[in-house]
Design a protein that fits this description.
313 residues; alpha/beta; 6 strands; 48% helix
């Protein structure tokens, strides 16, 4: 099984890079998120620890797995440890938020939103456009790839791309690597959301919220928070994740989390009701905070148990 991972990790990297916003490389720019063949070969023969939290969810005798993912990662994190790999290999389907490798997804996510059009004449909107432009240039990102995208979508992308110099890339997201594995092993992939669902959720921020996000990009706080979130995710320690998220209020946008948590729980309720195990991958922030997915699944009659994994960095 381990020998399969380099093939799909590279495939996912290429698929996402084709839709990415990277500009031309210079000495001051982060290196591109491309996996070299020799590095993939080395990692394919390495023994990686389990990273991230994994739960067993059981109802009516049917056991499935719920994995809390992160949407940026280091390349080696895409090579799962033994517990994660076994759970994925024994599952019949992969259930994800959305298939991030699907052709045309970038265009669908970047489509204009009518709600933002009404704000474009405001002075705050124009100021944010200018400041976001500056952040694209500073990050060496070709902003032309984001034509038509909402400001919220641009800020979200800039945040995910902010820690590339620390080796964290959206190109190596855990979700993408799982999808690549499922495609390679011919497992069925089922989505919990549509592109419109995600676009609406991401684009719902008001201008005051966006200004706070831009300030965090400008100060470097966004990058620092992303690095720390990635670190606590890799440990798999849910308590550390909850404590850090409380300190930075990372789940305070209840409009965003409440709606999506309900959608995820309802989808899991339906899809994990079969007689064969499924592997569900959802961002780990949806597993903490008020009305999280784990609590909602318990309300739906699931027994939920976190599976112990090796707590290694």
């Amino acid at each position: 099984m381990k020998k399969l991972w380099p093939l799909f990790v590279l495939a996912c990297a290429i698929l996402i890079m084709n839709n990415s916003a990277m500009g031309q490389s210079t000495d001051s720019c982060p290196p591109p998120g491309i996996a070299a063949a020799d590095e993939l070969q080395r990692l394919s023969h390495s023994v990686q620890p389990d990273r991230g939290p994994l739960w067993e969810i059981t109802r009516d005798g049917t056991r499935s797995y719920l994995y809390g993912t992160i949407h940026v990662a280091k390349l080696e994190w895409d090579f799962p440890g033994p517990t994660i790999r076994k759970a994925l290999s024994t599952s019949k389907k992969l259930i994800v938020e959305i298939d991030v490798t699907k052709p045309g997804l970038g265009a669908a996510m970047n489509a204009p939103m009518a709600a933002e059009a009404a704000e474009r004449s405001s002075s705050l909107y124009q100021s944010l456009v200018s400041r976001i432009d500056a952040q694209f240039r500073k990050a060496c990102i070709n902003q032309d790839r984001f034509k038509g995208a909402t400001l919220a979508s641009m800020v979200s992308s800039l945040t995910l791309l902010s820690a590339r110099k620390q080796g964290l890339y959206p190109e190596f997201s855990i979700d993408a690597s799982l999808i690549g594995f499922a495609r390679y092993t011919k497992k069925e992939i089922v989505e919990l959301e549509t592109p419109e669902d995600q676009r609406t959720a991401i684009g719902a921020s008001d201008l005051a919220d966006l200004e706070r996000d831009v300030i965090e990009l400008e100060s470097g706080k966004a990058r620092e928070n992303l690095e720390n979130l990635a670190r606590v995710w890799a440990s798999g320690n849910l308590g550390d994740m909850e404590r850090y998220c409380q300190s930075i209020q990372c789940t305070q946008d209840r409009n965003y989390f409440d709606t999506r948590n309900r959608v995820f729980a309802a989808g899991i309720d339906k899809l994990a009701n079969e007689k064969e195990p499924v592997f569900i991958a959802v961002g780990f922030l949806h597993m903490i905070g008020p009305d999280n997915v784990l609590d909602k699944l318990k309300e739906l009659g699931f027994q939920v148990r976190q599976i112990p994994t090796r707590d290694e960095k």
